Amino acid sequence: VRIVETGDGSLVDVRSKSRLxxxxxxxxxxxxxxxxxxxxxx
Length: 42
Fold this sequence. Notes:
Layout lengths: L1 E5 L2 E5 L13 H13 L3
């Protein structure tokens, strides 16, 4: 996770990489979406 301050807010860069195999069949994308959803204010 990388967070960069911008002039009017912040930019969050999140990456997820499989350790095994060639394809994760969408697992990494789901992990990132779940993480970003948890970062949203209530």
